[in-house]
Design goal:
By secondary structure, the chain is α/β, with parallel strands linked by helices. The protein has 2 domains: 111 residues, no CATH class; 192 residues, P-loop containing nucleotide triphosphate hydrolases (Rossmann fold, 3-Layer(aba) Sandwich), CATH 3.40.50.300. It has 11 helices and 12 strands. Strands 6-7-8-4-9-12 form a 6-stranded mixed sheet, sandwiched between helices. The chain has a 4-stranded mixed sheet with strand order 1-5-2-3, covered by helices on one side. It has a two-stranded antiparallel ribbon with strand order 10-11. β10 and β11 form a beta hairpin. α1 runs antiparallel to α2 and α2 runs antiparallel to α4. The chain starts with a helix and ends in a 6-residue tail after the last helix. The relative contact order is 0.10.
């Protein structure tokens, strides 16, 4: 019954939009509305009971129900309507597609008319990405960043909370919006038309008896299979294979990333594993990083993308700022120094 009520409201809304002069140039055929307008009368007849909220209309309802029962009116109308819906299913699809397109257009126009910076994407056949002041639309005070890549992919290292994951999400989100609603949150957006794949925020599945690492393996395998496509693909990954030990994570991660990085594809990877910066070919992967500065006893993040690998760490500093015992802090720093002196952590 709820579906019939929605249909009953959708028809006059579509008729209202169809009469607008600024909409008619984009839609030349409104013939689908005529048969649906006739159906609406039968729908209103069947849904009238849901609108009888006034107790004084109870008498009217009782009389009408008696008439319906006596002549089987409701039964006849229902089955005729069901038959009509079956015949008019294509027009019904066009009705909701039309309203959906108008609704999406209104949403995009509202965004474009706001204060946030937007642009119209430019799709290029070249194997080049160019972003000017790219932002994430869900962050009120997002720091804009630029990026330019030609025949290469990208590895981003960064301190905790510095913004590397948010940046690669912004890349994926803007690519998706560019290819669907033709709008980007940037001053300039140029890129190929991608097939977009991601491996971000993977979780274990207790009901399916799959560990975190197994879920990672299965998700990334989908990306590996997709890389065989001759069409351009955008692969966005955050902390690849973090569900396993450091040695195997770095070894397998470098191999997977290199495999995905075929000529027509772009691979965007955010990671804490600085070892990857030494294992990937410099001509195939451009290195970028986010970092922080220490001001007194506080960390300050500028969330600005910088070229080159990360040179600093801040995990122990964050422990210290958040009140961990000094014994833990000192022991952590001593252990860090010892590990950095070994060949495994150079």
């Amino acid at each position: 019954m709820r579906g019939l009520e929605v249909f009953s409201k959708a028809v006059p809304i579509a008729q209202f939009f169809a009469q607008k002069d600024n909409i008619q140039p984009f839609y030349t055929d409104f013939n689908f509305l005529r048969p649906l307008a006739n159906m609406r009368d039968k729908v209103k007849f069947l849904t009238v009971e849901s609108k009888l909220y006034n107790e004084f209309l109870a008498v009217f309802w009782i009389v009408s129900e008696c008439i319906k029962i006596l002549f089987n009116i409701e039964y006849i109308v229902f089955y005729r309507l069901a038959d009509r819906i079956s015949k008019e299913h294509e027009n019904i699809d066009r009705l909701f597609e039309f309203i959906g397109e108008i609704d999406a257009a209104i949403s995009c126009a509202s965004v474009r008319s706001g204060k946030i910076v937007t642009c119209t994407p430019v799709f290029t056949p070249e194997n080049t990405i160019f972003y000017k002041e790219l932002t994430h639309p869900l962050l009120m005070y997002c720091v804009p960043n630029d990026l330019e890549l030609t025949n290469s992919s990208m590895l981003i290292t960064g301190s905790n909370m510095s913004g590397k994951t948010t940046f690669i999400r912004a890349i994926a989100l803007n690519a998706l919006l560019a290819q669907t609603v033709h709008i980007c949150f940037a001053k300039r957006y140029e890129a190929p038309f991608f097939k977009i794949y991601s491996a971000i925020r993977i979780a274990d599945d207790l009901l399916s008896q799959k560990s975190y690492y197994l879920e990672e393996v299965l998700r990334v395998k989908n990306l590996v299979e997709a890389s065989k496509d001759n069409n351009p693909c955008l692969f966005v990954m955050d902390e690849l294979l973090k569900g396993t030990n450091t040695l195997e994570r770095v070894s397998a991660g470098a191999s997977i990333i290199s495999f995905l990085n075929k000529q027509q594809h772009f691979v965007m990877v955010a990671t804490h594993d600085l070892e990857l910066t030494k294992l990937l070919q410099p001509e195939a992967f451009k290195l970028y990083h986010f970092t922080e500065s220490v001001e007194g006893n506080m960390l300050h993040f500028d969330h600005t993308l910088k070229k080159g690998p990360l040179k600093t760490r801040n995990a122990i500093k964050i422990l210290e700022i958040n009140g961990y015992p000094q014994e833990i802090i000192e022991h952590s720093k001593a252990t860090e120094r010892a590990l950095l002196n070994t060949s495994d952590f150079e």
